[in-house]
Amino acid sequence: MTGQALLGEPLWRPPAPNGFSDYEAAWIDGLAERADVASNFAGRVADRLDPKALVDEALGPLASPQTREAVNRAGSRAQAIALLLMSPEFLRR
Amino acid sequence: MTTLHTSRRDILLGSSALFAWAFTPRFARAEGRDPRFLTIVLRGALDGLAAVVPVGDPDWVALRGDNALTLGSKTAALKLDGFFALNPAMPNLHAMFAAKEAIVVHAAATSYRERSHFDGQDILESGVERPGAVRTGWLNRALAGLTPDDRVSSNGGRAFAVGPVTPLVVRGPAPVLSWSPRRILPASDDTVMRLIALYRGTDPDFARTLEGSRKLTALVQEHDVQQKPTSEITGPNVKQLRAYFAEAIGAAAKFLAEPDGPRVGALALDGWDTHFNEGIARGQLAQLLGALDGGLAAAKDNMGPAWRETVIVLVTEFGRTARINGTLGTDHGTATVALLAGGALKGGRVIADWPGLKPSQLLEDRDLKPTVDLRAVLKGLLKDHLRADERKLAADVFPSSSDVKPIAGLVASA
Q1: How many whole angstroms separate alpha carbon B394 and alpha carbon B132?
Q2: Alpha-carbon distance values, B97 to B18, B170, B246 (Å)
Q3: Is residue B179 classed as helix, strand or coil in its secondary structure?
């Protein structure tokens, strides 16, 4: 929940009656905070997820060679998962 | 796209319900002693030559050039003996060494000779020579194998893990408790640098945004420093890093110190994969080593009288290249250091069969050559400190390692 609030989208409390913004400018400024949250989150699931398999599951053919390389070369499973969660393909869907 | 959406949601939903809470098991006490044992895994491959510097090796300075720490460096290394010196970011460990409460084992390595962090960590923590072969760690199997007559009983005993994820080294048949620091550690500088590198090649908008916010963070930190002048190493995230390491290691010590608390535990600390701007004397690595050093000091404080029955061992999956690379860092190597701290040690010694640093003495003219099997160190500690059975150590804890003899005499009153 703290993570969600940090990302600028607190649960049940959208900043305007028409909900959260779909425009990129509204969330791209929070990219560094998003990296903190992703990093923290990745640290909590690293024992249960295999980063290389996760790339295939979550992104499959959408994964860029650069993202795959970054994941494979990460210093730990947790860092690999954080990089995957923060990859442009994952964030922009 | 449907698959993508489902997986993404699955991942996001996984973020809740991850914690088990610690309680205090009771151990039988034999021999009138009550040993404590903490394993700290440094993930990412610690540069052993930067942590414990072979200042007495005539080839040292030529090997690392301007990046070689020496006793006469601007930030001078701390003398350990006639040959080795400690990274200046670790004054507390240095004091423990002087008080005979620390041992350095140099040029040590696991049996792994490839260069994958994931596989290297698997072998380091599982104690099995093939990566991914088992889902249990050597520490847990050692604990499970102790009989009631052993120094630490597994009868009702529990291992514990500190951190949001239970490290493989302590997973297995013996029950494990886990506890996690409340503190949230921001993405490391290393992770952010890797993201910026990734974005530069794939998404310029993201790259610009992230670089911009990093500059901002750096400015804020600089401002802090100007207000409070200090000789300490500073940079983005340094305070948080120090606080996190101190809380994690300090909390582990508190659990171990409890009269009815667990006696064996493990935790893992990320961030040692220093390919870029390693910062041996004042940068990234110095910050990490400094935070680790503060954590060891917190452990000693929190242990109180139990410190004299404690052994903490710090291990990493492999070392780094002997030479500096083109981006002022080091790449994946082979041999490195194992650091031991605790009042139960027969300390004040660097244990090494030094392989030398001449090109012909390096492994493949590239890495520090391993001359000590890390399993010999771990087996020595498990045998003498916890009274683990040597046959079990050779068969179950570190399978097919009967050729690797435990190093004797690491513990003072063993």
Answers
A1: 19
A2: 38, 27, 19
A3: strand
Q: Which residues contact B96 (CB under 8 A, 6 or more apart)?
A: B102, B296, B300, B341, B347
Contact in structure between B312 and B299 (CB atoms under 8 Å): yes
Which two three-digit tokens encode residue B251?
């909390």
pTM score: 0.84
Domains of chain A, residue spans: 2-92
Backbone dihedral angles phi then psi of residue B104, each to the nearest 5 degrees: -110, 130
- Window 8-67 of A: residues touching B by CB (8 A cutoff) are 24, 28-29, 31-32, 35-36, 38-41, 43-49, 51, 54, 57-60, 62, 64, 66-67
ipTM: 0.80
Contacts of B143 (CB under 8 A, 6+ apart): B152, B154, B157, B159, B172, B174, B264
A90 touches chain B (CB under 8 A): yes
Contact B127, B381 (CB under 8 A): no
Question: What is the dihedral sign for C-alpha B81, B83, B86, B88?
Answer: positive
Residue B327 DSSP code: T
Q: Which residues contact B124 (CB under 8 A, 6 or more apart)?
A: B41, B110, B112, B169, B315, B316, B317, B374
Mean pLDDT by 10 residues, chain B (414 residues): 35 28 35 86 97 98 93 94 97 98 98 94 96 91 74 55 83 80 80 92 92 66 40 62 91 86 88 92 94 98 96 98 95 98 98 98 98 98 92 95 97 78
Chain A: give the shortest CA distance to residue B12, in Å: 9
Q: How many residues does chain B have?
A: 414
